[in-house]
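Readers of this paper often ask what the protein records in our data store actually look like. Such a record has a labelled line for the sequence and another for the backbone structure tokens. Nothing more is needed to write down the fold, since each code stands for a local backbone conformation. The record that follows is passed on verbatim for readers who wish to inspect the format.
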Amino acid sequence: MHLDLTTVVVRDYDEAIAFYTDVLGFELAEDSPSTTNDGRPKRWVVVRPPGGGTGLLLARADGPEQEAVVGRQYAGRVGLFLRVDDFETAYARMREHGVTFVGEPREEAYGSVVVFVDVAGNRWDLLGPT
């Protein structure tokens, strides 16, 4: 058993795809036409880290209730954790792409860490090896 997907509610599919693929280096696993429960068009968009693993379903906000959670899915807390093999390279790449960081990188018992904000406004930990 494994966790296959988790949802990130976003404002715009293409903007989110560009962030996760171009900035974070994820792979676009799927981008297919779909429909809402009441028949309106939408897209089924999944991005995954290189080589697979748990993916993110990028779901465009549909209506005021969902729009209200864009960037606040975790109530301002870090809710997603991206572990990389080469922290310095990932951090430099993200800085070059203008990613917003909350504070400076630091060393903890579990490795290098810095908080960053994704395209929707959610907080993530970028984690490197110890």
About this structure: The chain has a mean pLDDT of 96.
